[in-house]
Amino acid sequence: MSKSSSFIPIYDFSPSVNANYLKQILPLLVRHNVAANPINYAIWYDYVAESNSSLTRAVNSLIAEQKKFDYETSVDLYKTHICNASLESFEQINRQLHKVIEQATSAINDTYHKAEETNDSFQKKSVILENFSASGGLKTVLQEIIQETKSLALTSQAMQAKLTDANREMEQLREELAQVKQIATTDGLTGLLNRRAFDMTLAEIVESSAPEMTCLSMLDIDHFKRINDTYGHTIGDNVIKYVATLMKKHAEDHHHVARYGGEELAIIMPNTRAERAFQISENIRSAMEASRLQRKNDNQPLGKITLSIGVARLQAGDDSESFLVRADNALYQAKQSGRNKVVPS
Ligand SMILES: Nc1nc2c(ncn2[C@@H]2O[C@H](COP(=O)(O)OP(=O)(O)OP(=O)(O)O)[C@@H](O)[C@H]2O)c(=O)[nH]1
């Protein structure tokens, strides 16, 4: 889906057109037995708006083959036809939706206040005219005008109520899209940023940051295969989750903690000096070394689990790839020199 054929343009329509889309989605969800979750909402919004041809084709062929729209199918549709194609467009949708909402609300508020002002002004004139008995004919005309103005104000009020409803629906849509975006950028196991979000964040930060003040830590769980082989994958997963919580705990609020892939994790540290980045990494390493994890069901200790960490500092002329390679090389050095270490690049 190219940018121009993404589903952004539908948000240029009036709130009533958007509300109409919303009304078409519900019966479709019911007819095809689709759960009303944010992922499906995004899929069927695109489908109804006919703005994403590859998605429309995929949905139509699923309908034709009478396939079930179960969770896996929805995630697959979402990943293939929405998320991968247009993650950036979500940002744009959010901005556009906000603009539409603001413009519509301000337009109707203006109309409403204008009508009220007119009403007030005529009423004042009416009072003045009450004192002039000779101007009976004119008074009647003015009273009619006042009536009309009042009715205009009532119409405006009704219109405002309708717009408020549309406004609410749009806000809800915006929140749902934000949720969809969050799903698209979050690692399911750990709740950290996923690889895609890591890549995007790193590229943005490298582009916008001053060298020397940005650091990157790459972290790998030592002999993780052994943990999996000895205790099974579920415990392996729990160890990854535990490491993720340690990283979140020790990283600063403005740092970006991510799961780079498998048992390799990362922290992008903008506005952070190398000494501080090293210290944070060392805190995580030593906290892990001191942890005594146990199996939940029989309290069997898992033994000492350690981490190897490589830390790199952004240098002038770096792009995200060269920055990442330096951090990865430092991690490799930590592994080669005995593991359970933090090595600066
Ligand atoms: N439980 C679990 N295991 C994973 C996951 N992703 C990757 N792995 C496993 O992680 C292991 C990584 O092993 P290796 O890359 O050989 O390295 P290692 O055993 O950690 O050894 P060193 O890195 O050399 O210390 C493999 O056995 C993968 O199957 C995951 O999400 N969950």
UniProtKB/TrEMBL annotation:
Gene3D superfamilies: 3.30.70.270. Its cofactor is Mg(2+). SMART domains: GGDEF. GO terms for biological process: cell adhesion involved in single-species biofilm formation; negative regulation of bacterial-type flagellum-dependent cell motility. Its EC number is 2.7.7.65. This is diguanylate cyclase. GO terms for molecular function: diguanylate cyclase activity. GO terms for cellular component: plasma membrane. It catalyses: 2 GTP = 3',3'-c-di-GMP + 2 diphosphate. PROSITE patterns: GGDEF. It comes from Methylomonas koyamae. The lineage of its organism: Bacteria, Pseudomonadati, Pseudomonadota, Gammaproteobacteria, Methylococcales. SUPFAM superfamilies: Nucleotide cyclase.
